[in-house]
From TrEMBL:
InterPro entries, A to Z: ADH-like_C, ADH-like_N, ADH_Zn_CS, GroES-like_sf, NAD(P)-bd_dom_sf
Protein name (record): L-idonate 5-dehydrogenase
Listed cofactors: Zn(2+)
Similarity field: Belongs to the zinc-containing alcohol dehydrogenase family.
Species name: Brachybacterium vulturis
Cell division found in the keyword field: no
Every Alcohol dehydrogenase-like C-terminal domain range: 179-297
PROSITE patterns in alphabetical order: ADH_ZINC (PS00059)
Domain Alcohol dehydrogenase-like N-terminal, chain residue ranges per copy: 23-140
Keywords, alphabetical: Metal-binding, Oxidoreductase, Zinc
Amino acid sequence: MRALEIHGVQDLRIVDRPAPDPGPGQVQICVEWGGICGSDIAYWRRGISGTAVMAHPFVLGHEVSGHVRAVGEDVSGLAEGLPVTVHPARTTGPLPTRLAGRDNLHPHLTYLGSAAQDPHTDGGFAELITVDAAQVVPLPPGLDTRRAVLAEPLGVAMHAVRRAGDVHGAHVLVAGCGPIGLLVIVAARAAGAARVTAVDLAVPARERALAAGADEALDSAEDMDPSITVAFEASGAPASLDTILRSISRASVVVQVGNLPPTPISVSLGQVVSKEIDYRGTYRFVAEIEDAVELLARDDLAEHVISHELALEDAAAAFTTQVSDPTSSKVVLRIG
């Protein structure tokens, strides 16, 4: 089978690998679509994603969808031909009591397409993958595998919105309209937000935000509407966070969705105290991917997140498009 390995900075290779047969409790999946994520780009550009450093080649990708090809022993409820997506996380051992319900923070967690562990965890950019049956998420009727490739990042967005608390009837701000920011707009709408203001410096991103459900799209969060009480910082830019903290109303909630740099940054935090701002982090998701497929099945707004489709053999061009084309948003690979 073909798989997309990364061997170094800007060194992607299509390689032949043996197909991984499913063992007991496992499922083999024919992967049809793969979405390129910011972490994939980070490995490609620098060999590092967050604190994870690539030490040897591995298969990229954790946003995938396709069909069940085979099931191992002791697997029930999943059959050959079933359209599915995959929860990329796998945990080992019990979750500490204080983290109950927050499996995304499990101290022993592996993620598809990650160099956080050594040996690295191979990802889903391959014609066939084998995962635990518990990681397989069947698609509801009406959801095709192309749109379902957005289930993992939409799960991230839905988790971020839940971290904000009840947004029903609220006026929310989403700063940074890349793929995750756009999906936060979709998730906030689904959670009952009354109005969504999007912010991005790029015109194409603002246009895509309006298509994805934002009521207005601005180039700055300065002079923020005082009715905004919830903000999602999805760009990972310290200047964006600084502007939000300075501009947002008292007693508001700010959720940090975008990955901030791992080095010290300059942000004025005095407003967190004087305005009693709740500043919250959000990391991946727990089980929101199951809710994500249901939302994708009934709402087509997320379609506006996908900007380009390229074949697996054109992966290098796909990665270049993701970082250099000003009109790009979510670039997806046709794998199978």
